[in-house]
Amino acid sequence: MATITNPKVRLQIFRSYVLFLTLCLSFMGVAQAQDVEKNEKFADRLERLKERFGVDFSYNYSVLGQIEIPKSSDCTTLETCLKELNEFIPITFEASSTSNYMVLPIRNDLKFTIIDAITDEAINGINVQINNGIERYYYPKKEGYVLENIFALDSIHIHAPYYKSVHIKASDLQQMKGPLKFEQEMIHLDEVEIIDYLTRGIDSKISDNSIQVDMNSLGLLAGETDGDIFNVIKNIPGVHSPSGKPGSLNFRGSTFDQSLIQIDDIPIYHNGHFFGALSPYNPLFIDKIEIQRNTLSAKWGGRVGGLINMTTSSIIADSTSYAFQANSVYAGATIKIPVVKDKLAFYFAGRSNYPGINSPKLTAFSNLNFQGSRLEVIADDVNSEKFEVGFYDINSKLIYDINNNHKATVSYINIQNSLFATLKDSDSKQEDFRDLDLDNWGVTAKWEGKFSERFTAQARFSKSSLTIDNTSEGFLETERNSFEKYTNTIDDTRFIVEADFEVNTTTKLETGYTLTDYELGFDERNDQNSVNNRRDQNATVHSAFFSLNKNWGDKVTANIGLHSDYYNPNQRLYADPRIMVNFRFNESLFFKTSAGRSHQFIQKKLRDDFDDFNNNSQFWFLPDRTTAVLEGYQAMVGVLYEKSGWLLDTEFYLRNTDKITLQDNTEMLQTGELKTLGVDLFIKKKWHNIETIFSYSLSSINTNYGETSPVYFDQRHILNFTGLWHLDPFNFAFTWGYFSGMPVVIPDFDEGNDSLADLELLNSERFPNQHQLDISATYSFSNEANTWKGIVGLSFINLYNQDNIVNLFQNAPSPNSPYRKAITFSPNVQLSIFF
What's the pLDDT score for residue 800? Predict the structure, then answer.
């Protein structure tokens, strides 16, 4: 090949090339401009027709206005011009008068199927967003997925867990001759979750054996339709409410006070509204919930039982949103405001019962709470002139995105409960009053920082304050003849720092330090017995943890850690090892294990009854000469299998809590252990839009205070059968439960108390077996543009009003009515609006 060496010739060639390139680019620009000029927006075309023919058009600009159509038009009359538009866009023109037309998009139902691109298995459950509307969850029907009232030019955004999202025009999806194929995303073992483990929004995380709840996508459960947090949790295998009260949750043999419950790092020390009848956590404000039934990871300390860790959203919304919820017991509202776009947001929510208004559900909980007490005779008249109850909760959160790597938030919660009752005896002219108040508030300030893709850190300050004030006084005519007052205060202040470092894609390190300061106060005054005592307790706990998370080839994951506490009052250091190891044999079969030790400082004394209304059962203590530090051991092994709509999960577990203090009705204290041995079996099957669930728990929960005996809430067999039917826009759920009877615990009365002799006790070691049926149904609706949606719900607890005995009253039971019973028939209706 010849080489051009003359500089003048080379310069001439270069100039020619530049000229040619310039001409090409100019031609392309002109061609593109001509193409742009050939098109115009639908809204502009209607404006031209309006000026030309003197007519007006009414239409949805957000749906039709920006659609581009060819600009050139040969039409000569209005009729031919409208017909021409019909050829470009699937719309109809309806004349509302001779000079006004309504432009309506033609909408049809869109039917399609989705399969895995590799296995060809059907995908059961997707989230769909149409244009920029609200994302909705869809279950498949026999003919596949059905989207109703879809415009051909709508943008359809489809998401499914562990698959790449698909974005497609409705017309393109309609013209597909085969199923839509979803490609799998690469998911590591430490990220694997069993989606919709119990129902939509409740997933099971393999790496730490936890249950993860997304309240924004929560599906229907039997017995409630309003997303009550306690009702959600008690449906999880291994979690049970033996008394029938939602707030008295039992985590595999551990009592309510032995489990850590917190919202945005604010610890909670009571079991909810109206003595545990209702969750005090607003389901419209809670974003995520982490639930642990087994060994807690090393970062968690201070409890020997389970975990309920609730968090609220820290994402700044794009626009202001509102939510409203009301049922037969309470009403509430939520507002989320982006104060400064992408920078600052304020969220607020509040709920309250209806002052002075009773309902069948509130009456059922009133009878459940006050049976066996002096208020039993007026329990049916709750929220009357002589018996008033009230409760409300407030949540707020301020979110500040400092920059892309740093965020600051401040969370606040306030929970209030009150009760005032009057008892009159017309014969003796005796009048007694009962006044109870619960005030709980908490705040958390949190900073999160991301220093690199591998290193993150956070610091938190939290404060939780609880005051329970219980007053009883009696008057004979105008003279006071009795006065009792009990007050318990808890101030829990914490400073927490944590850091995460990702060594590589398979190794992660976590560490942290917590300083906890407890201040407890207990006042007791009883004029009849000349008692006037005050006790103050203070303690500081220094806690630290370190954990290693390791993934070996997506076949084995391990979480190995150490949690340590230095308890200042006794100047002792407690070191608790924790370990979780999980194996994946294939894409469907997993083997899981966990074991660990823990210690608990602040605690309640164990009693022999479910009486949350009893003064002493509400109060907390720190270890002293009468109360020891609790020591707990846990171990679990299990197998999980999921394939083709089937889910099988089995866990064998052992839990032992030592140095528990028992206080019976004679006020005597005993120290012993609480030991639980059991197995949970969970089987679920999906058939298109129908799901069936079978769960069975076999356990033995015993105490040992010198001799071994079943604890009063021991239920050897717990069986639940659940059905879920998704018939969009309707959803139905039912659960039928069958439980073995609990032990007959005979009270130990003070000397001289012969009430026991009048009781006709059951001639058995256990009470009769229990059973009940809970059902729920919802109807969802929205506007055509999906800019708002609503849900109407109806639910029934214990539909056929089964009489379930759970215990003997432990404090001087009446011979005519000695038995404590679970909740009776309880109906509820609910309405939620989101916009």
Answer: 96
In contact, 451 and 495? CB cutoff 8 Å: no
- How far, CA to CA in Å, does 199 sit from each of 61, 233, 260, 330, 798? 38, 12, 24, 25, 21
pLDDT in the model for residue 744: 87
Q: Which helix (H) or strand (E) holds 9?
A: helix 7-38
Say if CB 468 and CB 619 are below 8 A apart: yes
For residue 73, what pLDDT is reported? Answer: 72
Cβ burial of 170 (10 Å; 0-12, 13-18, 19+) is: buried
What average pLDDT does the segment 215-235 reach? Answer: 90
Calculate helix-pair angle for 78-88, 42-53, nearest 10 degrees.
170
CA separation for the pair 242, 389 (Å, rounded): 25
More confident residue, 149 or 7: 149
End-to-end Cα spacing for the chain: 73
CB burial string 220-247: b at 16+ within 10 A, e below: bbbbbbbbbbbbbbbbbbbbbbbbbbbb
Q: At residue 73, what is the residue type? A: S
In this structure, are residues 448 and 407 in contact, taking their beta carbons and an 8 Å threshold?
yes
DSSP 3-state of 474: strand
Highest mean pLDDT among 36-45, 120-129, 658-667: 120-129
| Four-CA torsion 16, 19, 21, 24, nearest 10 degrees | -130
Q: Which residues contact 585 (CB under 8 A, 6 or more apart)?
A: 591
pTM of the model: 0.87
Other beta carbons within 10 Å of 764: 10
Burial of 801 (0-12, 13-18, 19+ CB in 10 A): middle
Adjacent-strand bridge partners of 51: none
